[in-house]
Write a structure and sequence with these properties.
The complex is a heterodimer of chains A (505) and B (489). Helices cover 35% and strands 13% of the residues of chain A. Chain A is an alpha+beta fold. Chain A has a domain at 3-236: Amidase signature (AS) enzymes. In chain A, helix 8 (291-306) links the parallel strand 9 and strand 10 (310-314). The longest helix of chain A has 21 residues, at 389-409. In chain A, 61% of the residues are buried. The model of chain B has no long low-confidence stretch (mean pLDDT 92). Chain B has 16 helices and 17 strands. In chain B, strands 1, 2, 6, 7, 8, 11, 12, 13, 14 and 15 form a 10-stranded mixed β-sheet that branches. In chain B, strands 5-4-16 form a 3-stranded antiparallel β-sheet, with no helix packed on it. Chain B has a two-stranded antiparallel ribbon with strand order 3-17. Chain B is α+β, with helices and mostly antiparallel strands and 489 residues long. Chain B is elongated, with a radius of gyration of 30 Å. Classes of the chains: A alpha+beta (505), B alpha+beta (489). The A-B interface holds A 80-81, 87, 89, 94, 97, 99-101, 103, 206-211, 213-215, 241-245, 332-333, 335-336, 338-340, 342, 344-346, 349, 351-352, 356, 360, 380, 383-385, 388, 392 and B 39, 42-51, 78, 80, 82, 84, 87-90, 138-140, 147, 274, 276-278, 281-284.
Chain lengths: 505, 489
């Protein structure tokens, strides 16, 4: 097995056993990144900085001061600000922007130092492409070009964390960080055949994550396996005094249940998921779901049942409303969050302008892409005096109902299973002309962000065109370790996640 | 026509904290531009606000002092507008649910006590400031204004009154009382030159007897009591003249120009921004429970209104004296300390000394009570000698002046007794000595004696004056009176 096909759980063992050094691993991935630029997965790479970190990591390992992730390379979605690498959120308005500080996620995973004593010691490979300001479902909204799908370069990678998904799928990073506001970790994970988890809102600090919609944004890991995601999430998450919405530190090891049966008392090794109730929301299997996807998810449900789980039908009646609710709330917050990009202190400023108003208008029109401008306009509109009650306030009320629906469902089941998206990846450009068509693709992922629940994407098959299909597992608040356990048990009994992207060398 | 003036004030009091309301940067005034602005204040990509607990405690303290309701869960909202000195493109403020609701403040207008109803007080962050000077250039070499973000994120408490004031004098009395209170509470340093306390005045006029309010204008950023008074006076005249000339007042924001002593239009209602307020998703509701309120209450100083009432009852002070003594906490503290050093029966004399000689010396020196070179023990020593009859009130003033000047000049201070001794200022209460003095004066002023005997009471006072003069002020005035009467009868 080559290093780019190796899960980080095994990489960690090899590093610990001194079978490989961090320098060698880092060099290996940097060479692959250089050779495989065609996917457009990375926006900024700095070999010198990466190797410097690898060197430090090797010293830490040699001194016996490493964590279990020290020396393993990781790629960061360009939504996280980093010292050293440019931080652009894939926007022209931040082209060449250099952050004077690291996002908390980057620091948590990065090199330990006096100011960052608990850094996990992972090596940053660079910054991955994304939809501009995380707005998009295909990665076609990047100011620096779309990311291509490693399974078929005619197809989109999904978005907004498309660069991270493609980097992992194409073996350009062993694991990556992503962010998920309405499905941005799960959907590209599904489209690229990898595993990703969006944790409960507040698990991972948002400090240093360029904000799209603050009440929905949540960072998470994207990797080859559920086990890898568990390892990365454990290192990523922390209470952060700089983020008022960050949860108290649970000190959890998210991999603690991976190799345990669902019930402690269970003795049947063939049925590790005995006692687990899997809820299948009927609204997730209704009209609009591609047959191939329905078949694959149903097969996955059966596989879970074979492992001992019980399947129950549940209902999430407001599923359809999650689209209008999300596309009111997220743009509302975005319109305000993106006001700071005004050309005054940093970022793009128009070359010529008449006066202050003209400077704002030109700088922002030139700096933002079409989809970002569209969402700023929508958000500005719904917050306007006279429309606020009808849109923003109404959406907040329905948001609470959506969250309550999930709680009702969780009375009947422990995890919810459904598709991540109505279909597999689409062809580049296929949906670009009709933004609403693209918004509808988010139907199964938006509601968990609105409710703040953890949810993950796990590879569960391929369609007729050999494009990957992902199933979605949704858990109740703070049940990440349990979700990862179910996914891991499934991955012990399946090999979808081990398939290599067909177009990758 | 008789006009009635209607005024409501919105006051921005800078909350006295070490660091900013949502960041760890210092709030110290006067630093080099942009040296006290961290990543959060600059609104760099990825930063988030974290609420300063001290700012909330100050807000609670203020709320308790004005008898307001403290909201158990107030909400920070974003007020969205573009301006170069507003780094995030929105100001974090409180909108629908402020931290302090209602409350009232007593003010003294002339001799009349009036109660000003407060609407609310809410926490918010200040903006930075634009610096319009030559020499700044933008990224493309274009001439630009400078931006100083040191002030951005400074915690403010915006205190809003109901439209209950009816004259510029009332507005000033309220502003002064509010200023006194926030400084008293230690929630604001009250420094108006540095912008720590500034008022916006909403002014309208209506025919006397009319129930509906007239159209109001808001005069922004008045940072002295004098400007507040002048601006309102000008604005009232302007509005009345406008209406009497057949015009109508347009709702707008106006600025006061102190040089020209006039207000002028800044922007009309039509130009007003739609601020698109919505709850800030980066901040949780400000949860304030009873325990926190009790804790803040337990650390609060006695309030000026309480002290005034208590002192008037306990010591028979006048409302005016009580007001003067509670103008600031240091003065009140001085009075209280003084009363621990002298007998309570001297309370009135103590009040007189502080509001009289002491206050005028401070005034002349442009000094605050806390910086005065003379402390309670010095005043106590003077009072003690008045009380035991060693010196008269007049001599007491002289001694105070001597001590003050020495203290200001940095000389080592003599004790009151040493000064009395050295300068021979001891009051003459020896009857023999006094009688001799009186006899001399009577001989030298036969005319006055005759006038008195012919019924002119005034002549008696003239004689007392002569005797006091002869004694260089040291004669015990009570005794002089008594002895003189005897001699003339």
């Amino acid at each position: 097995m080559s290093w780019h096909q190796t899960p980080i759980a095994l990489m960690a063992k090899a590093l610990a056993a001194k079978e490989v050094s961090s320098m060698e691993l880092t060099q290996y991935f940097l060479s692959r990144i250089e050779a495989e630029k065609r996917w457009n997965a990375y926006l900024d790479v700095n070999a010198h900085l990466s190797l410097e970190q690898a060197n430090k990591a090797d010293a830490l390992i040699a001194a016996g001061k490493g964590t279990r992730l020290t020396g393993i390379p990781v790629a960061h979605k360009d939504v996280f600000v980093t010292r050293g690498w440019k931080s652009t959120a894939a926007s022209k308005i931040l082209e060449n922007y250099q952050s004077p500080f690291d996002a908390t996620v980057v620091a948590n995973l990065g090199m330990p130092s006096e100011e960052n004593p608990h850094g996990a010691g992972m090596v940053c490979l660079g910054k991955t492409n994304m939809d501009e300001f995380a707005m998009g479902s295909s990665n076609e909204n990047s100011a620096f070009g779309p990311v291509l799908n490693p399974w078929n370069r005619q197809y989109v990678s999904g978005g907004s964390s498309g660069g991270s998904a493609a980097a992992v799928a194409a073996g350009l990073a062993p694991i990556a960080t992503g962010s998920d506001t309405g499905g941005s970790i799960r959907q590209p994970s599904a489209f690229c055949g990898i595993t990703g988890i969006k944790p409960s809102y507040g698990r991972v600090s948002r400090y240093g994550m360029i904000a799209y919609a603050s009440s929905l944004d949540q960072a998470g890991p994207m990797g080859k396996t559920a086990e890898d995601c568990a390892l990365l999430l454990t290192a990523m998450s922390s209470h952060d005094p700089r983020d008022s919405t960050s949860l108290a530190d649970s000190g959890e090891d998210y991999s603690r249940f991976l190799n345990k049966p669902w019930q402690d008392s269970s003795t049947n090794a063939a049925k590790p998921l005995e006692g687990l109730r899997v809820g299948l929301p009927k609204e997730f299997f209704a009209e609009g779901l591609a047959q191939d996807v329905a078949n694959a998810v149903n097969a996955a449900a059966k596989a879970l049942a074979d492992l001992g789980a019980t399947l129950v039908e549940v209902s999430l009646p407001k599923t359809k409303l999650s689209i209008p609710v999300y596309y009111v709330l997220a743009p509302a917050e975005a319109s305000s969050n993106l006001s700071r990009f005004d050309g005054v202190r940093y970022g793009h400023r128009a070359n010529e302008y008449k006066d202050l108003g003209d400077m704002y208008q030109k700088s922002r029109t030139e700096g933002f892409g079409a989809e970002v401008r569209r969402r700023i306009l929508i958000g500005t509109y719904v917050l306007c005096h006279g429309y606020y009650d009808a849109y923003y306030l109404q959406a907040q009320k329905i948001r609470r109902i959506i969250a309550a629906d999930f709680q009702a469902a969780f009375n009947q089941c422990d995890v919810i299973l459904g598709p991540v998206a109505p279909d597999v990846a689409w062809r580049l450009g296929e949906k670009s002309k009709d933004p609403v068509q693209m918004y509808l693709e988010d139907i199964y992922t938006l509601s968990t962000n609105l409710a703040g629940l953890p949810a993950m994407s796990v590879p569960c098959g391929f369609n007729a065109n050999d494009l990957p299909i992902g199933m979605q597992l949704i858990g109740n608040y703070f049940s990440e370790a349990r979700l990862l356990q179910v996914a891991h048990q499934y991955q012990q009994a399946s090999d979808w996640h081990l398939r290599q992207a067909s177009e990758v060398a | 026509m008789q006009w009635e003036v209607v005024i409501g004030l919105e006051t921005h009091a800078q909350l006295q904290t070490q660091s900013k309301i949502f960041s760890g940067a210092s709030t110290r005034f006067g630093a080099q531009p942009n040296t006290q602005a961290c990543a959060v204040d600059l609104a760099l990509p990825g930063v988030l606000p974290v609420l300063n607990r001290q700012a909330v405690e100050h807000a609670i303290r203020f709320g308790l002092a004005v008898g307001a309701k403290i909201s158990p869960a107030s909400i920070f909202a974003r007020k969205n507008y573009f301006y170069p000195d507003l780094p995030k493109g929105y100001q974090i403020s409180q909108f629908e649910i402020p931290v302090v609701v209602g409350g009232q403040l007593e003010i003294l207008v002339g001799d009349e006590v009036k109660v000003v109803e407060l609407t609310r007080a809410h926490m918010e962050e200040d903006a930075g400031k634009s610096v319009h000077e030559e020499g700044f250039t933008g990224p493309h070499g274009e001439a630009s204004s400078g931006i100083d973000l040191n002030r951005a994120g400074t915690p403010l408490l915006e205190i809003v009154t109901e439209p209950v004031m009816r004259s510029a004098a009332e507005a000033v009395a309220y502003a002064k009382a509010l200023h006194g209170l926030v400084v008293w509470l230690g929630v604001c340093d009250g420094n108006m030159q540095e912008g720590s306390f500034r008022c916006d005045a909403n002014v309208s006029v209506r025919p006397k007897g009319q129930v509906e309010f007239g159209t109001r204008c808001e005069i922004k950023n008045l940072n002295s009591f004098r400007f507040l008074e002048e601006a309102i006076q000008y604005e009232v005249r302007r509005q009345i003249e406008l209406i009497e000339d057949g015009g109508t007042v347009v709702q707008e924001t106006r600025l006061y120009d102190p040089d020209k002593q006039e207000t002028r239009s800044m922007r009309s209602k039509e130009d007003a921004n739609d601020y698109r307020y919505f709850p800030d998703p980066d901040l949780l509701p400000v949860a304030i429970d009873q325990a926190w309120i009790a804790d803040v209450r337990s650390q609060m100083p006695a309030l000026p209104a309480q002290l005034r009432e208590q002192w008037q009852i306990d010591f028979g002070l006048s409302a005016y004296d009580a007001q003067l003594l509670t103008q600031d906490r240091d003065t009140a503290k001085l009075f209280e300390t003084l009363l621990t050093l002298v007998d309570k029966s001297l309370a009135k004399a103590a009040a007189n000394l502080i509001t009289g000689e002491f206050a005028s010396a401070l005034n002349r020196a442009g000094m605050a009570t806390a910086d005065a070179p003379l402390k309670a023990e010095h005043l106590a020593a003077i009072l003690a000698r008045i009380a035991d009859g060693t010196i008269s009130n007049k001599i007491a003033k002289d001694i105070f002046a001597i001590l003050w000047e020495d203290a200001v000049a940095g000389k080592p201070l003599s004790s009151v007794d040493e000064i009395i001794e050295a300068k021979g200022l001891k009051q003459i209460s020896d009857s023999g000595a006094l009688e001799a003095m009186i006899d001399q004066v009577l001989v030298a002023n036969q005319k006055s004696v005759e006038e008195f005997r012919s019924g002119k009471e005034k002549a008696f006072n003239a004689l007392v004056g002569q005797i006091m003069k002869a004694s260089q002020g040291k004669a015990n005035p009570g005794q002089v009176n008594e002895l003189l009467r005897k001699k003339l009868s």
